[in-house]
UniProtKB/TrEMBL annotation:
CDD domains: CAD3
Name of the featured protein: alcohol dehydrogenase
Co-factor(s): Zn(2+)
Family: Belongs to the zinc-containing alcohol dehydrogenase family.
A GO term for molecular function: zinc ion binding
Gene3D superfamilies cross-referenced by the UniProt entry: Medium-chain alcohol dehydrogenases, catalytic domain, NAD(P)-binding Rossmann-like Domain
Keyword NAD: yes
Keywords for this protein: Metal-binding, NAD, Oxidoreductase, Zinc
Pfam families named among the record's database cross-references: ADH_N, ADH_zinc_N
Length: 353
């Protein structure tokens, strides 16, 4: 089944060698397999992971040549013969988890991101920095038609990832969460989800501009790591009785904040690692971890249910994280800003430009 208006060629950003750059060029449009859909991507968010993929930063092989991108929102224009629960014309999203086996013990227990056969958009398979992208129908995000595809794109990775992290933290309504890297794309989303889930937020990042953005999004306190002489004391002082936050969400892409989090988290609290600084290690004092009963855990991307819940928060008008839109042809400029850590909020690329 296919729409006759699908072209044979399309514009895409292609990484041809590790280290980049991404090259804007025409490539063929692929046909979906029996259990896949072809999505005409209208907008795609740009995630730090896309830069890591291009630079070969992680101990996991990247497909080359590679079309990056895993926050693609668009319209289903073709589908395989086995796909029954999604129709041509439906709105759908390409997310990080492009597909999984659906049969292993992880998939059976809704931990499909842990599947050893998982396909990763813009990493092990081509992603959303192209006008027509393929994904397994079972895994594409279902996007209600009334939602703006441009604004919902960043929910597909940033939104799902931080929402999953907040769920994994076990923090309950009324409790406090510190968000490290709160001024970035993930952080802006995390503040919004935390607030929507009834949590109080201490935002941590660098610079006054990021502080203003965090407060505008609803964080109760902001700790500027470039201005404080004692970050641990400042974070604790921002929470009731100075006991520290019940949970810490680590979205930073530097290693140092990972070491500090166990010092200011509240006893019985949890430290949730989400950001992936290249070649970083976690170090925590065993004594404190034991006698203060601190939980340290990793949180990866969400499963299919987390995805739909994250989109539902957005659909209810509770998530309005800022973004800037530029043409797909200018993607390399975004990578350069990311490299210099100059981005406030999220960039979205428009695949028609
Ligand atoms: Zn991402
Ligand atoms: Zn599996």
């Amino acid at each position: 089944m296919a729409n006759s208006e699908i072209p044979t060629e399309q514009w895409a950003q292609v990484v041809e060698k590790t280290g980049g750059p991404a090259v804007y060029k025409k490539i063929p449009v692929q046909k979906p397999g029996p259990d896949e859909v072809l999505i005409n991507v209208k907008f795609s968010g740009v995630c730090h992971t896309d830069l890591h993929a291009m630079m070969g930063d992680w101990p996991l092989d990247v497909k080359l040549p590679l079309v990056g991108g895993h926050e693609g929102a668009g319209v289903v224009v073709a589908k395989g013969e086995l796909v029954k629960d999604i129709e041509l014309g439906d709105h759908a999203g390409i997310k990080w988890l492009n597909g999984s086996c659906l049969a292993c013990s992880f998939c059976m227990q809704a931990d499909e991101p842990l599947c050893s056969h998982a396909l990763l958009s813009g990493y092990t398979v081509d992603g959303s920095f192209q006008q027509y992208a393929i994904a397994k129908a079972a895994h594409v995000a279902r996007i209600p038609k009334e939602l703006d595809l441009e604004a919902v794109a960043p929910v597909l990775c940033a939104g799902i990832t931080v929402y999953k992290g907040l769920k994994e933290s076990g923090a309950r309504p009324g409790q406090w969460v510190a968000i490290v890297g709160a001024g970035g794309g993930l952080g802006n989303m995390a503040i919004q989800y935390a607030k929507a889930m009834g949590l109080n937020v201490v935002a941590i990042d660098g610079g006054a501009e990021k502080g203003e953005a965090c407060k505008a999004l609803g964080s109760q306190a902001y700790v500027d790591f470039t201005a404080t002489s004692d970050l641990v004391a400042d974070v604790k002082a921002a929470t009731p009785e100075g006991l520290g936050p019940h949970a810490v969400l680590l979205l930073a892409v530097q290693e140092k904040p990972f070491q500090q989090a166990t010092e200011y988290v509240r006893s019985r609290g949890s430290v949730i690692c989400i950001g992936l600084p290249a070649k970083a290690y976690l170090k925590a004092p065993v004594f404190d971890t034991v006698v203060r009963m601190i939980t340290i855990k990793g949180s990866y991307v969400g499963n299919r249910q987390d995805t739909q819940e994250a989109i539902d928060f957005y659909a209810r008008g509770l998530i309005k994280a800022p973004f800037k839109t530029i043409g797909l042809s200018q993607l390399q400029d975004v990578y350069e800003m990311m490299h210099e850590n100059k981005i406030v909020g999220r960039y979205v690329v428009d695949t028609s430009k």
